[in-house]
Amino acid sequence: MPQWIKHCLIIVLSATILAACSSAPKKESSEKELYEAAKKSIKLRNFQQATLALEELESRFPFGKYAEQAQLDLVYARYSALDLDGAILAADRFIRLHPQSPNVDYAYYLRGVANYNLDGGIATQFFTDVDITSRDPGNMRTAFQDFAQLINQYPESQYAADARKRMLMIRNRLAAYELHAARYYIRREAYTAAANRAAYVVENFPSSPVVEEALAMMVELYDETGLLKLKEDALTVLKANYPEGIAFNDDGSFKKQFIQKESRSLLSVISFGFLE
Hints:
Number of domains: 2
CATH superfamily of the largest domain: Tetratricopeptide repeat domain
Largest sheet: none
Number of helices: 12
Structural class: mainly alpha
Helix content: 55-70%
Radius of gyration: 31 Å
Strand content: under 5%
CATH topology of the largest domain: Serine Threonine Protein Phosphatase 5, Tetratricopeptide repeat
Distance between the termini: 93 Å
CATH architecture of the largest domain: Alpha Horseshoe
Number of strands: 0
């Protein structure tokens, strides 16, 4: 047989063997192998890889030995990978499937933390000049409910103390947002709406750091709108609680500081400034 024919036969045979090897079915990982791979990835802080392993484990072994723990780990892995929406969905699923689990308080806690951080957004994490009080704290309200549910159902949970601290911060954030809205209405000369926002802060967030400012705002706004009885009531509360605060001059007289009227066009007035 000529030499070149031998070479051709060797090449064809090698290609056939390689093709057979490549087409051979790949051995699938067992449930234990998938779980151990996920835990190793979490330990190495490779949360994307951990998420993939946990999702595969949950898909292939939904009722297996590691299923419940894998579903809980998935909440943490997604949260740590900054997939906050995915973490919330995973927490919801765990709570729904395992309401009696001894670790369900952790799912409530992580869901709350995810909502808490989801509200801030990427901009507030990287740009310090972003005024967070101007953002609608929608997810903060949801986080507050998550933490409240955790504390009510599991008051002895190891996560309850941190949840209480976060609830206090959320209250302050909500109060600051209401006051931000009041300032906006003042700029648009919508004084009744502004007074209502300030009053809402005093009534619903009495321990908030912005209550003093809200009371001072109410005094000035009620005076501007001619609601003198409400003005005197607010001034009495302000003097009793903050006699040497930002609202008073050195001689004890009330200091106006919020209403600064500007010359505005008719278009600005009727559109609340949006078409100015």
